[in-house]
Amino acid sequence: MLPRLSPLLRNPPMALAVSRATPPLPLHTILPATTLSSLHSPLSLSFAPKPSNFNFLLLTNNGHSNKKLKTFSQDNYRCTVWASQRGYREFRRRPVAGRRSKKKDLELNVSICIEEGLPNDPEILSIAELLRLNVPTAMKLAFDNLKSSTFKTRDEAITDVGGFDGIELSVMLCNDEFIRKLNKEWRDEDHATDVLSMSQHVPGLGLPFLMLGDIVISAETAARQAEERGHTIIDEIRVLLVHGLLHLLGFDHEISEEAEAEMDKEEQVLLESLGWKGKGLIQSAYDAESNMNHDMQSSDDRKKEGSLRFYKPKFSYIFCDMDGTLLNSKSQISLTNVKALKEALSRGVKVVIATGKARPAVIDILKAVDLAGKNGIISEFSPGVFLQGLIVYGRQGREIFRSNLDLSVCRDACLYSWEHKVPLIAFSNDRCLTLFEHPLVDSLHTVYHEPKAEIMPSVEDLLSAVDIQKMIFLDTAEGVATNLRPFWSEATGGRANVVQAVPDMLEIVPPGTSKGSGVKLLLDHLGITAKEVMAIGDGENDIEMLELASLGIALSNGSEKTKAVANVIGASNDEDGVASAIYQYAF
C-alpha cells in the first residue's frame, strides 16, 4: 500500500512512509517479473502484480506505528482506515452506522492519501473527505458485481473476495509533477498522466489479506479533464477511481477489442450504480479522439494557468525586474504575466520589484493591470529596489537606503549632453530633470512611464535643484555601443559606474552600488535568506541579483553576460517569460 510498502514509492524522498518486508519468504525467487501496459487513454497506465508480503509498519518522525484508526461496518464489509503520522497526509475514517451481519465481516482497509507536494487546498481536502466514503462503497459494489456477473476477458486471479479476512487498497491524490515522475520511472514516458494502477495481489500465497494495490490520481490532470468534459473535479476523480479499481480487479482494455468493450461497459455500470456523474474513462477517450481535441501533453509538461493550487511554493519571494523582463518589447505587461503573478500571490508568494525605474513609474504601470495597491505587488507601503538599487524601501515602504551620484560626474554629464545635444535624464527620487526637449526624453514618460521630465534652464539650475541618484543618456543602440559607453567608461574615472538595462540607454550610477547590492540590503532588512528567493531578470544590471538568489532565471532576450551566470534561461519577455518561470520553477 502507498503509505506502507509500494514499489512505486518505496524510495525516499518520494515516500516517507514505508514498510518492512516479512523476512522468511524469499518472494523474488518465486514471483514473475513486473510487466507494464499502457491504457487506451494516452494519459492512463496500469501495472501487473508486484511482490507484496509484509508486516504493517508505518514510519513516523517519532519512530513507527501500526495503529488502526476508525472502523465501520456495512453489509458484511468492515472498513478500517490506517494512517501514518508523517509523509503522506491521510484522513481518519468517521464511523458509519450499518447493520452487522451474523457472517464474518470482510474488513476493507482503505487509505486515502494526499501526496506531500499538494498544498492544503480546501477543494482537495474536501475531495479526500468524500473519497473516504466513496472508495469503500465503490469497492463493495465492484466486488458484488464480480460475484453476480460473468466476464470473458477479465483476469480471474482475484475471484471470491469472501475467502479473505480483509482487503487493502490505497488511493493517493497528487499533482502532475509527481505522477509524471512515476510515469517516467515505470513506463519511460516523460509526461503526466491521469491515473496509475498497481496491483499487489500475488495468487497462491494463502495470505489472509487481499493486497489489492494502489491507485494514484493526479488531481491536477483531473481538474483539467473535468473542465474539458463539463463536470466537476470530484466527478472526474470518481471516474478515474473506477477505472483504476477495475484494473486492479483484472480488467484490461488493451488486450483486445472485446476486453475493451467489457471494461468500458463495467465502468459505466459502476458509475451509474453508484449514482456518479460522467462517462467512463474509456468512453471519454473515444469522445476525445472523435472530436480530435484530445489533450496530448508536450514533453515539458509545464504547469499552466490555474494549476498552482496543486503545488507548494518552492520559494517565499520572487524578485523581478521590469524593463526587458516583466515588460515586453512594447513596454507592456501581458495578461498572461498578470495572471501568473496573481496566482503566485494567492499561493502566499511575495513578489518584490527590483528595477532601474522610479517607484512612481512602477506603481503607474502595475496599477493599470490591478497589481498595485494593498493586494498587489507594489504600493507606497511595500518593499522594493528602485533606480538600480540606489533607493531601497523596506517594511511599510520606508526608505532604508539612498545613494547619490558624485556632483562632479553630474556636472560633466550635463555639459556633455548640452554640448553634443545627446538627451540626458537626471533621476532624483520621484522626479526626472533634463536640459532640453527631445522626442527620446518624451518617450521615457510616454513609453516607459517614468515621471515626466522637468526642463531646467541651465546646468547650474539642474545641479542645484536636487540630489541626483543616477543619470541616463538616451540614444540609438548603435550610438550607445560605439560612442557613449566607450567614452563614459573612461570618463567616469572611478567616480561612477556605467550600466545598461536596455540597448538604447546608458546609465551612470554611483560606484559600489548596484541592483544586487540593493537586493542584498533588503534581504538583510527583512530577515530573508537567499535560499527563499527566486529572481528573474535580463540585463547586465541583473547579474548580481541572479547570482544572489537561490534560483536565478535570465530571460532568453537578455544579455549574454546575464545568461552566462543564470541557473536557468527562460522564455523571452515577448513570450511571457515571467509567467513561464513562475509556473515552471516557483512551485
From TrEMBL:
Keywords for the protein's UniProt record, in alphabetical order: Endonuclease, Hydrolase, Metal-binding, Nuclease, Zinc
Transmembrane segments: none
The UniProt record lists the keyword Zinc: yes
Annotated PROSITE patterns: COF_2, UPF0054
Endpoints of the signal sequence: none
Required co-factors: Zn(2+)
InterPro entries cross-referenced by the UniProt entry: Cof, HAD-like_sf, HAD-SF_hydro_IIB, HAD_sf, MetalPrtase_cat_dom_sf_prd, YbeY, YbeY_CS
Stated family: Belongs to the endoribonuclease YbeY family.
NCBIfam families, sorted: Cof-subfamily, HAD-SF-IIB, rRNA maturation RNase YbeY
Protein name: Haloacid dehalogenase-like hydrolase family protein
Organism listed in the record: Salix suchowensis
Organism placement in taxonomy: Eukaryota, Viridiplantae, Streptophyta, Embryophyta, Tracheophyta
